[in-house]
Specification:
With about 150 residues, the chain is an alpha+beta fold. The protein has one helix at about 10-60; strands at about 65-70, 75-80, 85-90, 100-105, 110, 120-125, 130-135, 145. The longest helix has about 50 residues, at about 10-60. It is rod-shaped, with a radius of gyration of 25 Å.
Length: about 150
């Protein structure tokens, strides 16, 4: 018995490669969007940690701590409120694709030695895909990520 071994034609190979390329393109676009979303959430988590650390420093050092948002240099600095030139901590978010849209109480937050904040605040920021995240600081100093 003879078998008729026949290979794939050039048209069939091109069609299969085209389908694979189209699927890879779709996967690539969604992977980029997922990476941007993850990056934004990571920055939000890091920012919430920086705010919680400033509150903790105010409690431990028994002095007011100020968190300053420098939007031009894309940095967040924690300084002692009575010694603003002494930077205690600094967080650099440059190159992370994040833009602050709104800081409800201006460019700084203050935590008192009791752990309370001077005023409640809302911080809204977004990534390049216009996905938004919101952090709130309550009057009691609690930092929430929404």
């Amino acid at each position: 018995m003879m078998k008729n071994d026949r290979g794939a034609s050039l048209v069939e190979v091109i069609v299969v490669l085209g389908l694979i390329g189209a699927l890879m393109g779709l996967v690539g676009v969604s992977a980029v969007a997922a990476a941007a979303r993850y990056q934004g959430k990571a920055v939000a988590t890091e920012l919430a940690s920086e705010l919680r650390m400033a509150r903790y420093l105010a409690l431990v050092r028994r002095e007011r701590m100020r968190v300053v948002f420098d939007q031009e240099r894309m940095k967040i600095r924690t300084v002692a409120a009575d010694r603003p030139d002494e930077v205690i901590r600094e967080y650099d978010y440059q190159g992370k694709g994040i833009v602050f849209e709104r800081l409800s109480n201006g460019p700084a937050l203050v935590f008192y030695p009791s752990g309370r904040s001077a005023t409640p605040a809302t911080i809204i920021f977004r990534n390049k895909q216009m996905e938004r995240w919101q952090l709130t600081v309550s009057l009691t100093g609690r930092v929430s990520f929404l």
